[in-house]
Amino acid sequence: MNPAVIIPVYNHGMQIGEVVRQVLQLDLPVFVIDDGSTDSTTNSIDIIKGIIVLRHPVNRGKGAAILTGFAAAVEKKCDWAITLDGDGQHNPEDAKELLNAVNKGERCIVLGNRQGMDDKKNVPWTSRFGRKFSNFWVWTAGGPLVEDSQSGFRLYPIPEVLQLNIEARRYQFEVEILVKAQQQGIEIKEVPVQVVYQRKGERISHFRPWLDFWRNSVTFSRLIFARFFRMSRS
């Protein structure tokens, strides 16, 4: 395996520096994609040596940032990508668990199944509801039945996922890729990983409940329609 780490970030200037420093301890190529941040993110990552920083002049969405990272990783001859969020909720050390889940010769997607997501005290209701909502509709759209379809902590085989022609470019990218991977026979695994949610008032989330639930619904409707269209023709 020749993996790289890809970190999409948008306005997480308070957290991204520490996240990147922890990721560097994995001793892997690190690509940070600044997706049009307008806060201190730029300053926070520019002072860190040993990483490759790529920038979108305006916010294009998480999926677009991940694809930019994939393209850069391919140029560096990397054929696997570990993705994790820049808000500090993941423990980069758990990347080893994702890598260890892949057997020799396998080309699969590995999801980090975040533990403790039912904690009503520390986990926002939008995250708890969104995960269950997404899990059900990923399965309904013809994707895998998984426990954490919204986890951003993942391991991807880059050449295979680039052939899936994912249309979504924001949060919906991560659910669409599961559905299309399942349809193309790419195995999807899950391994438990830690999750850390900052206390209320400290956590910065760019998930907008009504707008993003609407975008999710549009994406799932498109995928479900495509599934039934294929079934009707078979």
Question: What would your notes on this structure say?
Answer:
The protein is of the alpha/beta class. It has one domain (3-233): Spore Coat Polysaccharide Biosynthesis Protein SpsA, Chain A (Alpha-Beta Complex). It has eight helices and seven strands, in the order E-H-E-H-E-H-E-H-E-H-E-H-H-E-H. The protein has helices at residues 16-24, 41-46, 62-75, 95-100, 125-140, 158-162, 173-183, 209-233; strands spanning 3-9, 30-35, 52-56, 80-83, 109-114, 154-157, 188-193. It has a seven-stranded mixed β-sheet with strand order 3-2-1-4-6-5-7, with helices on both faces. Helix 1 (16-24) links the parallel strand 1 (3-9) and strand 2. Helix 5 (125-140) runs parallel beside helix 8 (209-233). The protein is globular and about 55 Å long. The mean pLDDT is 90.
Report helical residue fraction.
25-40%
Structural class: alpha/beta
Number of domains: 1
Distance between the termini: 37 Å
How confident is the prediction overall: mean pLDDT?
90
Give the oligomeric state of the chains in this entry, treating copies of one chain as homo and distinct chains as hetero: single chain
CATH class: Alpha Beta
Q: Per CATH, what is the topology?
A: Spore Coat Polysaccharide Biosynthesis Protein SpsA, Chain A
Poorly predicted runs are: none
Largest sheet: 7 strands, mixed
* Content of β-strand: 15-25%
How many helices in DSSP terms?
8
